[in-house]
């Protein structure tokens, strides 16, 4: 638009604002520009431009917080524990087959095939096979991976194949975000655009990834990367990051919105700690009674020393009794710290941090003193929604692809006695993530029973919430019943041997209810 056109538009809008003030009063308040909103950013930018300009700095600062701030470390640790946990993901394959009973065709689980599939995948998950270095098992890889996604915003998983790799002919390598240079923007020989280290076609589909070459000797000196790049085709790379936009090129650290809060809180607590130590030491100050008192000398003060400026200073040991020098009076210096408002201020900052990530403030701040059953349960359930969302994300973006690739290579290498032509038939993975203990087991078991009785929940759903599989649980019950009958043991015998009928002790009461 020309300057004349801009001037005309401004004049018209100014006149309309005087003619129709009520109309403009109903406009979006967030669009107002005045002295209160003058520092509010209103420049039109894309998410990718913000990522390109800020990502390296944000990543380094988040890493600094993780290394030095206990709350930042707690957040990342909670992400790893909540999304993966101590046992990781459990594969339960759900391949089915048809059988005939009494002339009726039924579809049932193919137990034998499923067991074979589960066993071969479990073997690949050992540290000898799942990573190129051969020293990290799959569960630990998953935990480090999701923690890196939270800390740096992304991570790259590279597929490595070949007969010499291992008996599967398959393994993986994980590369951290800074190896894919965000400042590498160019045009490939084929004319495709290379944006932030990734080459795209005309549909914005990744074609190649460009990574910096690493000098492992220089890594310990903090300068491991060279200016040379090596190219890896996109079909070998899994770029793991949580998208916030359809056209987003790189990941964003989850700590980014709260990083400044955490840094300021750390500075505040560091200063508070020093202040509290000074307060505990109770510094002595000697003040002249009148102008005739003159200046203090080292002879006047026990243990006094004179500094370079000729000022007498005194070092006081804990528990030491002082004698006031002649002609002086003691002036108390007491910073009075820690202050009573310190903890409420700390909590208010950490509530914002917890809201940013979606974790429980009670856990993050270790603040259980004001919590009750209702608030604790509600907080934990909200947090579990985040972990279940991450379970699904890890399954969709990593585990399903890894499972299919492992199974394909195992079949090609004759490591499992199955026909590869029936791949689609037994490629039915189901991954069960970690579960959580009940806050109040007695009430929640009763609630589940009532829901099942009212046909609001199935046994499969109830068991899945506890990390158990319906078919496996029923099979285990059947096995236990058969084994007890074989050994001549009944439920009544167990009750008598454990004094359950007499109800001795809380454990006996609980076992009686369970039986």
Please provide a written account of the structure.
The protein is of the alpha+beta class and 515 residues long. The protein folds into three domains: 1-42; 52-273 and 338-435, no CATH class; 283-333, no CATH class. Helices cover 47% and strands 15% of the residues. The chain has helices at 3-19, 21-25, 47-68, 70-83, 111-124, 127-130, 138-152, 216-219, 256-281, 342-357, 361-364, 373-412, 423-426, 441-453, 459-465, 470-487, 491-497, 505-514, and strands at residues 90-91, 96-101, 104-109, 155-161, 170-176, 186-187, 193-195, 198-200, 206-214, 225-233, 237-240, 284-288, 304-306, 312-314, 328-332, 431-432. The chain has a five-stranded antiparallel sheet. A three-stranded antiparallel sheet has the order 5-4-11. A hairpin with a 5-residue loop joins strand 6 (186-187) and strand 7 (193-195). Helix 9 (256-281) runs antiparallel to helix 10. The longest helix has 40 residues, at 373-412. The radius of gyration is 33 Å and the shape is extended.
């Amino acid at each position: 638009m020309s300057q004349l056109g801009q001037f005309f538009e401004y004049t018209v809008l100014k006149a309309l604002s005087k003619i129709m003030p009520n109309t403009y009063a109903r406009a979006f308040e967030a669009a107002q520009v005045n002295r209160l909103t003058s520092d509010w950013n209103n420049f039109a930018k894309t998410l990718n431009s913000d990522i390109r300009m800020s990502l390296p700095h944000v990543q380094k600062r988040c890493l600094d917080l993780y290394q030095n701030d206990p709350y930042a470390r707690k957040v990342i640790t909670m992400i790893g524990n909540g999304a993966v946990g101590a046992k990781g993901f459990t594969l339960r394959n759900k391949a089915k087959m048809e059988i005939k009973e009494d002339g009726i065709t039924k579809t049932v689980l193919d137990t034998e095939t499923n067991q074979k599939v589960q066993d071969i995948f479990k073997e690949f998950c050992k540290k000898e096979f799942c990573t190129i270095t051969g020293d990290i098992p799959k569960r630990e890889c998953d935990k480090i991976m999701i923690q890196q996604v939270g800390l740096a915003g992304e991570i790259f998983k590279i597929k490595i194949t070949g007969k010499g790799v291992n008996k599967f002919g398959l393994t993986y390598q994980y590369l951290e975000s800074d190896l894919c240079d965000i400042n590498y923007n160019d045009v490939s020989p084929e004319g495709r655009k290379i944006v932030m280290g990734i080459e795209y076609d005309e549909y914005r589909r990744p074609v190649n990834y460009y990574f910096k070459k690493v000098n492992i000797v220089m890594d310990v000196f903090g300068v491991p990367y060279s200016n040379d790049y090596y190219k890896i085709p996109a079909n070998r790379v899994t770029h793991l990051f949580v998208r916030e936009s359809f056209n987003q090129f790189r990941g964003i650290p989850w700590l980014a919105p709260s990083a400044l809060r955490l840094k300021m809180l750390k500075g505040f607590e560091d200063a508070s700690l020093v202040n509290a130590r000074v307060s505990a030491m109770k510094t002595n100050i000697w003040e002249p009674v009148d102008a005739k008192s003159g200046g203090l000398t080292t002879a006047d003060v026990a243990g006094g020393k004179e500094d370079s400026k000729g000022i007498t200073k005194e070092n006081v040991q804990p528990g030491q009794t002082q004698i006031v020098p002649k002609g002086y009076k003691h002036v108390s210096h007491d910073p009075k710290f820690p202050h009573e408002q310190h903890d409420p201020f700390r909590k208010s900052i950490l509530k914002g941090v917890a809201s940013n990530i979606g974790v429980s403030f009670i856990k993050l701040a270790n603040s259980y003193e004001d919590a009750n059953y209702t608030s604790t349960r509600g907080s934990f359930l909200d947090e579990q929604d985040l972990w279940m969302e991450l379970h699904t994300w890890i399954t969709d973006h990593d585990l399903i692809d890894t499972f299919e690739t492992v199974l394909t290579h195992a079949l090609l290498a004759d490591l499992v006695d199955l026909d590869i032509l029936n791949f689609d038939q037994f490629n039915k993975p189901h991954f069960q993530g970690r579960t959580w203990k009940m806050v109040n087991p007695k009430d929640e078991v009763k609630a589940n029973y009532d829901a099942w009785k009212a046909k609001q929940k199935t046994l499969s759903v109830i068991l899945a919430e506890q990390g158990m599989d319906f078919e496996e649980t029923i099979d285990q019950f059947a096995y236990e019943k058969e084994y007890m009958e074989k050994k001549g043991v009944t439920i009544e015998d167990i009750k008598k041997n454990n004094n359950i009928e007499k109800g001795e002790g809380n454990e006996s009461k609980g076992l009686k209810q369970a039986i």
